[in-house]
Each structure stands twice: as structure tokens, then as C-alpha cells.
Predict the structure.
Amino acid sequence: MKHLLYILLFCSCVLKAQEQKYILLDSITAYYKVKQYTLDTSPYGVKSTIEIYNVFSKFYGKEAGLDYIVLISVTPDFDNGTNWEEVNLEKFENSLFNAKDLFKDIHNLVLDGSTRKIPSNINAWKVYPKLVKKEGNKYYAAKNTWIESFYCMEAPQEIVASGGYVINTQQPILSAEKLKKLYEKNFSTNGLSPFELLGRCEMSVVPLYLEHIYLTNVEEKGKDTIYSFYQLTGHENRHIYRFAYIKNKGIVAGGYDDFFHRQRYYGKWGAKEYTPLKLNELLWAEELKKEWETKTDKQ
């Protein structure tokens, strides 16, 4: 009987921890600056889009040490070919995530290291709050929402900023190809590599002390300086694991190989396949591609 009570208590705790939360886009934009971009997924062989929302902390670019970005990614749903579904706001009014808490964990992590990379108040069981947007008088919830937090800084090359959540634009450049070779030669175990897409039951875990966001390239486009990065972390702890960042514009490009690979392995596509991207290949914001093309035409 005692064992049964323990099991029931454990199950109730799990259900509570896994309760689906929702976060209103309007509540985010009411408190923070947001930059939204659209990524075309055609390079994966899938005709769809990924919508990304860069949410900037109130002191981003204003006060040293408080440059935070929360990236919200709305990825495709392959069962019905849409990213959003209409919902009744009244049904989840009691399950709303407070937008004011969006930066709580990354702020605590930077200040005292009290939380892990995956925010406890956002993602205790990897059940992200679903983003909800309003169009006219109707509300739509994202079918798939991923949330990641980053701390942006410009530490001198001599100062090594540790942590798998730090975007440091001043660190030495290390190409993704060289990083892959170094890691697989010195740290891969059982032949599993975080640089490879693995099978259904396989997972490459990168030790916490090795997690890092590496600067892999710097280039100029128009008036923008673009910093490319690669997140060295395990399969269980990454989403947009390689990306491009522009100061004040946020994350403007990325690779979502794990998402597409995972959907295939868990039967979301049936017999359909997808085309993996190359190590340095990214999906770029359509809005900026048009902006750069326009500036080039005027020159």
C-alpha cells in the first residue's frame, strides 16, 4: 500500500511538472523589444517555415552585463502542414506563463550560476510554454515551440568565458570543421559524436565542463557584422545549435537538423525523408536577405 502511495505521488508530481503552459506574444511585446524573422526550410527538402522571435532584455545594449536574448522558435508541424492552430483563450487563461519571468533563469545563471542552461522555470521537463498570437479576434497557439536563453558579451580573447549559454563575439575564431575533428579525436565516447545525427535510441552527451558556444566565422554584409557560432552541447540540450548573430538584430540564421531528424525517427513524416544541411549551412532570415539584396542593388 505504501509503495502504491509513492507511485501515485510520483505520477501526480510528473503530471504537474509536465503541465502545458502558454505565453502570449502580446504580453512579450508589451514588456520587451522583439525582432521576428522567417526561415525558409526548403534546404531541408521540406516546404515550410520556421518563425523565430528574438526577445531582448530591457537593458540589452544599455548596461554592461545585462545583454540577454531569449530565442523563441516556432517549428513546423508535419502532421497537418501548419505551424499554428486556433485555440480558445478561456481554456488556458489559468495556464499562462508570465512574460516578466522570461529572463529570470538566465539572469540568475549569469550572476551566480544557480541554474543550469535549461531554465527550470521554463523547461523543468522540457515542456516549453506554447507561444500564442492574436490575429483579429482569434488566438492561435504554436504547434511546436522551443525556447533558449543566451547571454551576449564582448570579452577579450585573453578572457575565456565559460558556459554553454554565452555568445561572446570577441573570442578567437575556430572553424566548425576543426572543432569537430578536435572533439571527436579527444572526447567522443563509444563512437557517438554530437556532430552526427544519431539513431532513435542513441544520444551523445557532452559533459557540462565542455559545453561552449564557439565563434566559427565573422563576415560583413552591407552595414552588418555577422558572427557565426556553433553550440557544442549534447543532443538532449540543443535546438538551434549553430546560428548567426548580429548585434541589435539578434539571431538571424540557424540550423535545426536535430528537429528534422527527430521528426523523421519518431514517425512524424511516415516514409518521407529530409536533406541534412552541411556543417556550416544555415537557414537565413528572409527579411534580411531581401534587405541585403536591396542595398546591393542600390550600390
Summary: Residues 148 and 189 are 27 Å apart (CA to CA). DSSP finds seven helices and 14 strands in the chain.
